Amino acid sequence: MRTGYLANARHFLDITDLTPGDLTAVLDAAIRMKAAHGAHDQPLKGKVVGLVFEKPSLRTRVSFEAAAVQLGGHSLFLPGDEVGLGWRETVEDFGRVIGQYVNVLVARVFKHATVASLADCAGIPVINGLSDEAHPCQALADLLTIREAFGEVRGRRVAFIGDGNNVARSLAQGCAMLGAAFALAAPKGFGFDAGFLKSFERRWKKSPPVVHDPADIVRQADVIYTDVWTSMGQEKERSKRLKKFAPFQVNANLLKKAPRHAIVLHCLPAHRGEEITGDVLEGPQSLVLQQAGNRLHAQKALLERMMG
After folding, report:
1. Which one is the CATH code of 137-291: 3.40.50.1370, 3.40.47.40, 3.40.50.1110, 3.30.1130.10?
2. Under 8 Å between Cβ of 91 and 117
3. Residue 37 backbone phi and psi in degrees, to 5
4. Location of each CATH 3.40.50.1370 domain in the chain
5. What CATH architecture does domain 4-135+295-307 belong to?
6. Is the separation of the CB atoms in 303 and 71 below 8 Å?
7. Is residue 228 a contact partner of residue 275, using CB atoms and an 8 Å limit?
């Protein structure tokens, strides 16, 4: 059984698998581990982190592989097209076998049902490295960056400019857990789906505001966050999305409407000239590279407790 401050979570499929106390403790540990500059204990010594990825990756793959090594363990990368997850053999057969070879499994998949099935059958802790419904590891890094910038997450206003995608959903939940205000600016028809809003309202007795003019939420924002307009698997919608989202670009004119202390975040990769301009991405208010680096520290903290 799990011990320590993740005692409430066997798997990490979404940010809500943690309690608010768990989440705060993970961020505490991430800050501690970041300050240690790699001088850690080795709670993963003799253990293997398996990574099965159906989607391309830079940050998720490399940060988890580096985290495993820095914590004294090893990683094993398994491309989805090589293992044939769900078509060469069933997800259940794969999970029951891989669970005998590795100690924790990170799955970056198209469908959330895949990672949920792995959690049901693998017999080891499973971490969602991205699915169509959630990106909880990204949310950990986002919240860590906000905390570093402002001292705490509570009371901050987060303006997400884009669609109600997996990144936005996990971050909205994380903000609610830690007492931050989250709002989404999206074109009509591209906000959060009804199922997510119903679940969110049932849990927190309110829904995250969704507006159709970015300026409405940027004016009081501490954090301005954006993501690509066309995610993996939506390539056929690209031309339509470019037209719909054009007024939602995070650029210098929009940033002028925000408080001077506001920071800019982006989960990367970025399409410069689409959802964000290069001058903003590289500007003094951008903490995007710090945010990307924090994937490593947040995931080390997560692995330390899930495996330790």
Report:
1. 3.40.50.1370
2. yes
3. 50, 45
4. 4-135+295-307, 137-291
5. 3-Layer(aba) Sandwich (3.40)
6. yes
7. yes
pLDDT at 5: 37
Alpha-carbon gap, residue 183 to 218, rounded angstroms: 9
Whether the predicted pLDDT of 163 surpasses 90: yes
Model confidence at 87, pLDDT cuts 50, 70, 90, reads confident
In Å, what is the CA distance from 39 to each residue of 34, 71, 150, 201, 304?
9, 9, 26, 42, 14
Token code pair at residue 80: 């989805």
CA distance 288 to 252: 16
Query: Rounded to whole angstroms, how far apart are CA atoms 224 and 219?
Result: 10
pTM for this model (two decimals):
0.95
**How confident is the model over 146-155, as a mean pLDDT?**
98
The residue among 80 and 252 whose pLDDT is bigger is 252
Instruction: Return the biggest CA–CA distance within the chain.
Output: 54
Over its C-alpha atoms, the chain yields an Rg (Å, rounded) of 19
Q: How many CB atoms lie within 10 A of CB 152?
A: 13
Residue type, 269: P
Q: Which residues pair with 128 in a beta bridge?
A: 107
Average pLDDT, the chain: 94
Q: Is the pLDDT of residue 8 over 80?
A: no
Q: How many CA atoms lie within 13 A of 142 on its CB side?
A: 32
Give residue 308's pLDDT: 67
- Catalytic residue numbers read 108, 135, 138, 227, 267, 295
pLDDT for residue 271:
96
